[in-house]
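User: Show me a protein chain along with its predicted structure.
Assistant: Here is one chain, sequence first, then structure tokens.
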Amino acid sequence: MKSTREILVTSALVLAALCQAPSAPAQVNEARVAFQAGVQSYAEHRYAEALESFRTAYRIRPHPSVLVNIANCFVALNRPQDAISTFERFLNDPTVAPPPQQRTEIQTALAEARRHLATINVLVFPPGAEVYLDGDLVGTAPLRRPLQTGPGPHVIEARQAGGGTVQHQARVEGGGTVTLTLDIVRNRSFIGSVAPETQPPAPIAVITPPPPPPPPAPPPVVAVVSAPIVVPATNVNVTPPVVRVEPARVPPTPPLLPVARRVTGPSVTVTPPRDGSTRPVGIGPGFWAGLSLTIAGAGTAIGFFVYSNSLEDDYYRIVAVFEGETDPARQSYYRALGLSYADAVDQNRLISYIAGGVAGAAAVFTIGAAVYGAVARETPRRASLQVLPSLRGDGVTLSGTF
């Protein structure tokens, strides 16, 4: 960056050049006023105002020497990329022959500005997408050279014909280098150099991740049966046995009682007293089934989640090896291997999330069954006893429910 005294010397030279240039007196006077305002603002460290004044003077009278002052303002405003392009524009002007000392100073300022540039290597998938830096089109993928910009936050975007777009915001440091991958097909962006492929790589032995361990076997479901279960037989033809009942030999003297009298004989029903007591329902089959499903789902979720973390560690080791390789064939091999590991991580984590959701739902059902068994109550069955005389009149018949 030039000092105030050096800029004033340049100002004097530029003002003299502006006055000698053939143009209307009004334009010369307007350019001189704008240039002097820029010199004053630069001396007072108001670099943004100085930049606008120098640009106004250059627009009225485009003298190449004004470009040096504009570039100095860009350096003061921490805009190294704009400063580099402006310095190079001045040096490449065929009508300018700067003194050796001034050329050396400008080349030194150029080297210092380049040292503050940040380099961004942009990998875009698929090829042919347009690449934008902070809203400005910089080229079409694949880019021929890395992007160079000033330090600070920047927005890098890839747009594909048809509507696909991926955007990534990154903060870069001056003098640093970062690699950014924009994947429009999978709608993702990440810092790294493992770029996806449009087609599977040429026949290369790909190591397939080992299959996930089988989920633990669920504990046996214990069912509490309160009454015997009778399963009727199916497709079985049973021929009832033929039973011959000989009529009883009754003496002819006593006549038989009429049927009506035998059916409508007296009866007595004995009902035990009820005390109004109740008892809890207790733990039923639903509780044990929900508990078994909870344990099985939780074990499956934990197993798949731990395995996905192990695969993720292997993925990052593959990425580190890929970035250190220089052989294109081995780079393609590790790229494909890294993508297969990334897919395996996503699949195992999805299974663990689904199993975890099932375990959570089963746990809620188990808790509900336990609360219901403890809170809900049922009334004991009522017992009754009925006494009837026998049809033959020689005894009584007892029947009832217990």
